[in-house]
């Protein structure tokens, strides 16, 4: 496909699908009457005697967001959703009720649990007004780490996550018992962005925003605008950070304070890594330490601008970014061009100086793969008036198995971004975590467990995956969630 033809096609589709998208969204949002509640700290549910048990309800809710009323989608009326905590070997039982106007389900992002039955099954469909009890048991050797849960009903994922449906799922374990980390102050940061209209309702995206991945100008941390994070002089702050936005990338930096990375998506790394900046694409998590060793005062947590590619599509709209008469909002208006303050680090009191730990938990070295696969990530014309995103030229088909693997084997997957627009794609694999081996042939600087990895434009990323424990069908997909909904998802079947 030539670039000229792509532009001509996009100009037509960008006009044609706006009305359809907006109409569909408006019909859905008016089916239910929102609950009304005040903004409350997210509730914590912890396992007891080997069982984590709770009721969870998805609904439309009126809450306070940044000092203004907002009509969002919530779990149990909260933004972010309740935090869940369990330990390896625990059983999880969640009685889930769908009071949305759309079908939905739950995905336990990053957990190594079965993809079948009422566990982490992305193919489950829970219609509006119906309930389902999720139940599964964590393996006894499940790593500790920062995981999360969100909807995964194909076709509705981006809209529902952008509406606010996301919550942390923390597995406690070996990392939490390291003395220096037990002494550190722990904070959880859930990063979400929203696009609200004048009445506080989620603004429907236009077709260009859907194709690039929707973003909102309102950026929040734990449902708040620029909250304060306290640190004691001499103290150590442990931050668990989740990018729960459907499309926005967060390029984080603290003023005058480096990050010390101690864990990625799937758990601890071997030794802390000092970073000036931390980039989190959608779905990624990180745990970092911040030292209270600066002059007392206030320091800003900044989100720095980041070019995630795909801006060639903007060229058709002209310099002002305005599509045509009748367009609803503009992607260019939401594209960040200068540092944005997410939160403020405030020194409060002092403690005896806590040392920065030197050793964490060793990361397993995987055996050489028996199979190497190539997966190409790209965008193409879809059927009708729209675009589709693909793996190896194929859009998602729920009736097609794209990849078959054998349990108890190790494979390397080469993720090759051949998108001619240079758009970045975060690749996420369900059930089995992996290690990033190389980028464009250059080895990764340290070993880590991941479940989501960024593949930039024209980049090749090699990941090494041990397929363990669970047979059945799972999915892999782009975690720019509009791209998933538009076809960039495949099915992997794990056979014993």
Topology, element by element:
Blueprint: H1 3-29, E1 35-36, E2 44-46, E3 51-65, E4 68-75, E5 83-87, E6 91-98, E7 107-109, E8 131-137, E9 145-150, H2 157-162, E10 167-172, H3 179-183, E11 185-194, H4 207-212, E12 218-221, E13 228-233, E14 236-243, E15 250-254, E16 259-264, E17 267-275, E18 278-280, E19 285-291, E20 298-304, H5 331-334, E21 340-350, E22 371-381, E23 387-391, E24 403-406, E25 409-417, E26 425-429, E27 435-439, E28 442-443, E29 452-455, E30 460-467, E31 472-478, H6 481-485, E32 489-495
Parallel strand pairs: 1-3, 2-5, 3-6, 5-10, 11-14, 13-21, 22-25, 24-32
Antiparallel strand pairs: 3-4, 6-8, 7-9, 9-10, 11-12, 14-19, 15-18, 15-20, 16-17, 16-19, 20-21, 22-23, 25-30, 26-29, 26-31, 27-28, 27-30, 31-32
Characterise the protein shown here.
With 496 residues, the protein is mainly beta. It is 11% helix and 42% strand. The chain has 6 helices and 32 strands. The strands form 6 sheets. A 6-stranded mixed beta sheet has the order 12-11-14-19-16-17. The protein has a 6-stranded mixed beta sheet with strand order 23-22-25-30-27-28. Strands 1, 3, 4, 6 and 8 form a 5-stranded mixed beta sheet that branches. Strand 22 and strand 23 form a beta hairpin. The longest helix has 27 residues.
């Amino acid at each position: 496909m030539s670039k000229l033809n792509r532009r001509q096609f996009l100009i037509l589709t960008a006009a044609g699908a706006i009305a359809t998208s907006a109409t569909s969204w408006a019909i859905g949002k008016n089916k239910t009457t929102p609950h009304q509640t005040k903004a409350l700290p997210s509730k914590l549910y912890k396992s007891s005697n080997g069982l984590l048990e709770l009721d969870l309800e998805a609904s439309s809710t009126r809450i306070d967001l940044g000092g203004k009323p907002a009509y969002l989608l919530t779990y149990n009326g909260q933004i972010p959703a309740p935090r869940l905590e369990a330990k390896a070997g625990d059983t999880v039982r969640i009685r889930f009720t769908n009071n949305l106007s759309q079908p939905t389900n739950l995905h336990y992002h990053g957990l190594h649990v079965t993809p079948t039955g009422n566990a982490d099954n992305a193919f489950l469909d829970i219609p509006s007004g119906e309930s389902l009890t999720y139940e599964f048991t964590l393996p006894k050797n499940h790593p500790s780490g920062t995981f999360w849960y969100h909807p995964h009903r194909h076709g509705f994922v981006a809209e529902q996550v952008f509406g606010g449906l996301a919550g942390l799922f923390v597995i406690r374990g070996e990392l939490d018992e390291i003395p220096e980390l037990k002494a550190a102050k722990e904070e959880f940061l859930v990063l979400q962005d929203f696009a609200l209209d004048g009445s506080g309702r989620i603004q429907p995206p236009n077709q260009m925003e859907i194709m690039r991945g929707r973003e909102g100008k309102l950026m929040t941390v734990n449902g708040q605008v620029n909250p304060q994070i306290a640190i004691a002089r001499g103290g150590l702050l442990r931050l668990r950070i989740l990018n729960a936005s459907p499309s926005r990338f967060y390029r984080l930096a603290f003023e005058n304070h480096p990050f010390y990375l101690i864990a990625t998506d799937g758990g601890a790394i071997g030794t802390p890594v000092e970073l000036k900046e931390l980039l989190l694409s959608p779905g990624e998590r990180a745990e970092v330490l911040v030292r209270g060793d600066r002059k007392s005062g206030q320091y800003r947590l900044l989100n720095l601008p980041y070019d995630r590619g795909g801006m060639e599509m903007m060229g058709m709209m002209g310099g002002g970014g305005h599509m045509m008469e009748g367009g609803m909002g503009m992607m260019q208006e939401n594209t960040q061009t200068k540092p944005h303050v997410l939160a403020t680090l405030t020194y409060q009191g002092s403690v005896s100086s806590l040392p920065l730990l030197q050793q964490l938990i060793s990361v397993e070295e995987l055996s050489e793969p028996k199979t190497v696969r190539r997966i190409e990530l790209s965008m193409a014309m879809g059927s009708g008036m729209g675009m589709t995103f693909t793996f190896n030229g194929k859009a998602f088909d729920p009736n097609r198995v794209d990849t078959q693997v054998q349990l108890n084997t190790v494979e390397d997957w080469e993720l090759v971004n051949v998108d001619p627009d240079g758009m970045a794609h975060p690749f996420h694999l369900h059930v089995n975590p992996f290690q990033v081996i190389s980028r464009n042939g250059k080895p990764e600087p340290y070993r880590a467990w991941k479940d989501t990895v960024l593949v930039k434009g024209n980049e090749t990323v090699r990941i090494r995956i041990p397929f363990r424990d669970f047979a059945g069908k799972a999915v892999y997909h782009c975690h720019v969630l509009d791209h998933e909904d538009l076809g960039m998802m495949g099915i992997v079947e794990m056979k014993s």
